[in-house]
Amino acid sequence: MRKDPILACLLNLFLVGTGHMYLGQIGKGILILAVGLALGLVTPVATALVAVWAMYDAYKTAKNMGQ
Q: Whole-angstrom Cα distance, residue 39 to residue 63?
């Protein structure tokens, strides 16, 4: 089933890692969520960087899945 790249990207904006879970990459999504939360305890900037990367990666992954 084709997944929407924009939705995958936006899900990561709301809660990092959920875009990957939506794409069926449950383990990767949980790992990204755990890293994002752990880094959030240290500095919000690191969490923001993880979130931006996760948004990009989920978008790119969804596009590749649709091909």
A: 28
Q: Please report, to the nearest 10 degrees, the dihedral formed by the alpha carbons of residues 12, 16, 20, 22 taken in order.
A: -70
Q: What is the pTM of this model?
A: 0.89
**Domain spans of the chain, in order of start:** 5-65
Contact by Cβ (8 Å): 18, 60: no
Give every CB contact of residue 15 below 8 A, 6+ residues apart in sequence: 33
Answer for the pair 17, 58: CB distance below 8 angstroms, yes or no.
no
Give the CB-side neighbour count of residue 25, counting CA atoms within 13 A.
Answer: 20
Q: pLDDT, tens digit, for every residue of 49-58?
A: 999 999 999 9
